[in-house]
Amino acid sequence: MIGSFKANNPRNNFLLLLYGLALNWPLFFKSAPAIIDSNDTFLYQYFIGIFNKYTNDAIISGVAFLILFLQTVIINKIATDQKLFPRNNYLVGMSYLLITSIFHIGLSSALLSISILIWILSILFNMSNQGNPKKNIFNIGLLTGFAILIFFPTFLFVFVVLFGLLIFRPFRIQEWFIVILGIVAPFYFVFAFGYLLDKFEMLHLPGLYFRIPKFHLTAFEISSICLTILLSIIGFVFAQSNMRKLLVQSRNCWTIISTFLFFALFIPLFNKTPQFQFTLFSLLPASIFVASNFYYPEKKWFINLSHWILVALSVVNGYFFIFH
Questions:
Q1: Is the model's pLDDT at 323 over the cut of 70?
Q2: Which of 184, 196, 245, 286 lies most in the core, judged by the most C-beta atoms within 10 Å?
């Protein structure tokens, strides 16, 4: 299995689909409704309200998996285009599907926001290769603003965007002004729309809450988190030790991914109610480091053991997801 995804074969996209369906087998037995939390913004609640009116839980689960798979394909393409590894492969996509399947990610504001953040990373990483940088910078700010409107704690990733501009662009105050203008633009239009139509509920944004979340997890879920953290650390060490083999552009991308992970770890702290879905922001960069853990080691027994333990945890957690 690892050997197949380690090869740069376009047919691996179809293999990723089969792999994702096999790992997310609980969706075929227990449909998960869309997750709505009191901390969600009006924009997400309005969207899900319409979606729930014309669909059912089975369709919602299918949409959640489809979004997750599209994220997988895009993330893997970003890793390939930016040469994050000495040779192109599909291990990033495989790792993302594997880790998210362990925690059974459903349709939520976090899932939609992370989709926008992946789009932002794609534009940011290609900043030096595209013309008209001011247009791209404004688009990055605009997308960041929409991500915040969907899931408010993503305001933390404004710091990632600004740091990315420092990495990929020479400092120009007008470009920082453009990106900030892009972030503010969605709020301006939404508030103006709500004011003109006398829909004052649209002017409300969730307050900021800072607290240590208390998740009620099974022993297997705790084991999954510990193993994911361990493999991410090992992958980080492998990535750092092999960084000299990569281009400067690729090294800068790894820097942004590390920064992304740092701020993603704080997302669960800024929520009124604890939801394990919020860890999805950490799983994205963590999966890239886990892919390093599958790519660099020369001992195949370690790679295969890590992979099949994660698969086993995914199956066991899927059992508890269905029957508990």
A1: no
A2: 286
